[in-house]
Amino acid sequence: MYPQRETVRHKKLWSVCQDLLLCWGLSDVKKFDIRKVGRSPEFTTKMNHSEIFIFGASHIGLRLARRLAAQNRVVVIDQQASAPEVPEGWKYVRGDLSNLPDLSQAKIVYAVTDEDKLNIRIALAIRHARADLPIVITLVQSRLGKKLSRHLRNFSFISPPELAAHKFVDALDMPANETAPNSSNLPVQEEPEIRHRWQIDPLVLRALLFFSFIAFFTTIYFHFAENLSWVDAWYFVVTLMTTVGFGDISLKGSSTLSKVIGTLLMIASVTNTAIIFALITDSLLRQRLSFTFGRRKLRQSDHVIVVGLGSVGLKVVEELLERGEKIMVIEDDIHGRFMPTISALRVPIIIGDAKLERTMRDAGLERAKALISVTSDDLTNLEIGLNAKSLNPNARVVLRIYDHLLAQTLDKQLEIHFALSASAIAAEELAKFAADVG
To answer: What is the set of domains in the chain, with CATH numbers?
Structure first.
């Protein structure tokens, strides 16, 4: 089960990696009990040297399984009750990813779940079980992967967003087919602008609830403690909370407890009122800034428009900057995860719906040399691409499309020069590691 000669350096490395994971917040790393390797009842399949394990039935994992199944026995392991698709040439096993199977005869192992933390945990557990077994994982954070590579033997990784970004940007300079019908005379359907209903800020809602809470209970208190009617008690609480105090009802002859409660009520009310006004002002200001940035027109020409600011979109922007391209970003969420990064890079951005003609015109699509749409939805990318070809038939259009058959059809029929899948690109690169193992 274990290598018979486990070096002291190997033991120290495992200890250091555990400490690092605990520092990163992965306190559940101890779930990987290496002494349980091969003990899980879910994994009873006999292994041979041609078998390949893939941890994670993600898009990348499924594509990789299909690629490797032709020449290898492939087992895909995930916690889902059933495989996301019908296995063709590979086997699906439901199992706990924190309890490893018997890997003594495995050829290579892949960890391609959608979580970097889980992939690292699987890699460390496998490395502790078998020091000679090649491990390949996917990591969004490539810098972390490079650091792990310095300390782990037979360890490799790829960053799917970075890999896809290189392919998307390379597509800008590749020759395109000229067999598609001309779409320059096709009208762009002007869609009505979607107006999102205003929603109250959760912090404002909490402040208002607290305001109502103290008003309710102090009204009950003064009703019984000061022998006031319900209306008078409510009226008295409101005058205290607003610090008006007409003097018709006072606490001059009341008990000490009533005076203390009245004083605390006034202080809490003034403070809470200030907080509510500050939060409302902040919310209105953010709405105004969103509207202002979303409606501004930026004058650029011969630039590349990038739609979608996820992990792939950010890597595309960084790759374009390295190549000296002028960039315009379109994103529909002003609170997106990577907005601060784009702001730090000083890349112009428009907040709006890229499916609308007005947003595309504001981004200067008529003068752009290319558009790269990398949102996570195939149909959204397709609609954006078709609108882009109608507004500027000469622009190179590159789309992120998961569906392989759809991607093949777009170039031939709809003049979408390149429709690429980030998961397919990653799966192709991952398959090379299995070929190198032999």
So the answer is: 8-158 (3.40.50.720), 167-188+297-423 (3.40.50.720), 202-294 (1.10.287.70)
